[in-house]
């Protein structure tokens, strides 16, 4: 699932490439992507791009006709530039034409200058969503957003107001967009490892020192990741994210904290997450699934 650091890098590339360009054509391959049926994406034809902004894990393309295209990448959505026809016909170098097929394009937006942006979805169900609105707050997910830890103005008071005293597990709080915008499964694992806190402990059980560690880990993890992704081409952002993870996706590997322990899987809200038992749970193994302990 794209999270704020990767979405910010995507937004930066879209901004630098699309600002000032005019929409020449829109092709909606999958009708379920359109969430504003009374304002189809084809109404954007002829509009000129004024800028691109990030809102949590969503992005918005602002046009000069006062309209905005808001895109939720969902769980498996992403964006890419369509290759030139000659490049598209040729198989990737060194693959013998047997490379894994790319995710399907669900929406295509052609701009002047032969620039084509494709919105894709690699999932078994459509998670990509698009809205044509006048203001971003017309999209309910954005209207309900909590503060964004990437915002330089986000401080300890904002964090305590959102988190402190909550009778809810830390990992759930970090991923709750109404509490803190932009964090998902991967970065919540990274934040909790950095803070050396259990994913399943309730926020209400934390002392001030632990809250301070969690605040510092939240802001540094997200802001450092945004800085690290800056300038990486959008087709390499997933690879860069995976390579940067300390614990997420690394079950079975030695703990990078040097404790001698091993990163373990556990099940959380129908997904698999990772943690270090030695560093985060005093050696307790969290359940991998009902009735089991994480491997």
Automatic annotation (TrEMBL):
InterPro entries: FPG_cat, FPG_N, H2TH_FPG, Ribosomal_uS13-like_H2TH, Znf_DNA_glyclase/AP_lyase. Keywords: DNA damage, DNA repair, DNA-binding, Glycosidase, Hydrolase, Lyase, Metal-binding, Multifunctional enzyme, Zinc, Zinc-finger. PROSITE patterns: FPG_CAT (PS51068), ZF_FPG_2 (PS51066). It comes from the Bacteria. Residues 246-281 form the FPG-type domain. Residues 86-105 are annotated as: Disordered. Residues 2-126 form the Formamidopyrimidine-DNA glycosylase catalytic domain. One of its GO terms (molecular function) is lyase activity. It catalyses: Hydrolysis of DNA containing ring-opened 7-methylguanine residues, releasing 2,6-diamino-4-hydroxy-5-(N-methyl)formamidopyrimidine. One of its GO terms (biological process) is base-excision repair. PANTHER family: FORMAMIDOPYRIMIDINE-DNA GLYCOSYLASE. This is Fpg/Nei family DNA glycosylase.
